[in-house]
């Protein structure tokens, strides 16, 4: 699932590529991605992009007075950039396998190991012939698009809590999201109404860095644990955004995977203590933690064990 560091890198690249460009064509291959049937994507054809920004895990393409195209990447959504060829038609796809330069072969191999090429569900073509392809690799459609006057009209945007990468995020916002919550702290970190942009992977990384058990209730955390968790939340998300900045769209998923210290590392040695990173069942998925660093040696339950 794309999370705020990768979405921020995507947004910054799209902002640089698209601002000032006019949308010349829209091709919606899967009608279920369009959530505002009365305002289809085609309504924005002819309008110029005035900027691209991020709301949590969602992408916002601004078209000035014409409105906004808000894209939720959902669980398996992503984007490919297809540059125009000499004829002005979309050519190489920069979000698939068109990386060039030193290390390109290694990057392509890493990207292929993360996900096979995903089907395109909608394409936005711009006045220079380049195209933004919106993809979804899931078995069910999680990608969603809204054409709205105000991004807050999108329910997923309206409910967002404080963003740990935002200018207004401070200790008061952090404490307010956790205070009195009789809920597992990992669940609170992933709850978009509490912390915008964090998902399964970065919540694992934050908790590992903070040396906090993912199943501890937020209300039970002491002052020292809260201090560590606040520093880790800001540091992990801010550091990941800085590290992803400038990484090509094609390489962002593989770069994220390679940077993980705990998430997805089950069976590998913890980089802090050397104990084996372990899996545990969380909601409908699997997450990772270090028993020595986070749970005082206690093994958390894994479905089927």
UniProtKB/TrEMBL annotation:
Organism: Agromyces terreus
Family per similarity comment: Belongs to the FPG family.
Name under which the protein is recorded: Formamidopyrimidine-DNA glycosylase
Cofactor requirement: Zn(2+)
Sequence ranges assigned to domain FPG-type in this UniProt record: 261-295
UniProt keyword annotations, A-Z: DNA damage, DNA repair, DNA-binding, Glycosidase, Hydrolase, Lyase, Metal-binding, Multifunctional enzyme, Zinc, Zinc-finger
Any GO molecular function: damaged DNA binding
Documented EC number(s): 3.2.2.23, 4.2.99.18
GO biological process: base-excision repair
All copies of domain Formamidopyrimidine-DNA glycosylase catalytic, residue ranges: 2-141
Keyword DNA repair: yes
Reactions that this protein is recorded to catalyse: Hydrolysis of DNA containing ring-opened 7-methylguanine residues, releasing 2,6-diamino-4-hydroxy-5-(N-methyl)formamidopyrimidine
Superkingdom, taxonomy of origin: Bacteria
Coiled coil regions in record: none
Gene3D superfamilies (UniProt xref): 1.10.8.50, MutM-like, N-terminal
Stretch list, region Disordered: 83-115
């Amino acid at each position: 699932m794309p999370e705020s560091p990768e979405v921020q890198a995507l947004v910054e690249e799209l902002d640089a590529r698209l601002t000032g460009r006019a949308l010349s064509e829209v091709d919606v291959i899967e009608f279920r991605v369009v959530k505002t049937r009365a305002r289809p994507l085609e309504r924005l054809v002819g309008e110029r992009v005035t900027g691209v920004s991020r709301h949590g895990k969602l992408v916002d393409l601004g078209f000035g007075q014409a409105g906004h195209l808000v894209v939720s990447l959902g669980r398996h959504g992503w984007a490919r950039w297809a540059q125009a060829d000499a004829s002005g038609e979309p050519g190489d796809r920069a979000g698939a396998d068109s990386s060039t330069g030193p290390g390109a072969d290694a990057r392509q191999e890493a990207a292929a190991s993360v996900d096979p090429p995903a089907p395109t569900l909608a394409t936005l073509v711009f006045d220079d012939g380049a195209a933004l392809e919106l993809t979804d690799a899931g078995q069910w459609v999680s990608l969603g698009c809204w054409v709205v006057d105000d991004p807050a009209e999108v329910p997923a945007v309206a409910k967002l809590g404080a963003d740990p990468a935002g200018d207004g995020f401070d200790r008061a916002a952090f404490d307010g999201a956790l205070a009195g919550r009789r809920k597992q702290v990992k669940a609170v970190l992933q709850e978009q109404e509490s912390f915008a942009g964090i998902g399964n992977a970065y919540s694992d990384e934050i908790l590992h860095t903070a040396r906090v058990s993912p199943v501890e209730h937020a209300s039970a955390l002491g002052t020292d644990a809260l201090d560590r968790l606040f520093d880790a939340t800001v540091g992990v998300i801010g550091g990941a955004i800085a590290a992803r900045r400038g990484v090509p769209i094609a390489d962002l998923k593989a770069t994220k995977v390679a940077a993980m210290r705990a998430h997805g590392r089950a069976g590998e040695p913890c980089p802090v203590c050397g104990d084996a990173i372990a899996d545990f069942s969380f909601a409908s998925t699997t997450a990772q933690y270090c028993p020595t660093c986070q749970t005082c040696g206690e093994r958390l339950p894994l479905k089927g064990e």
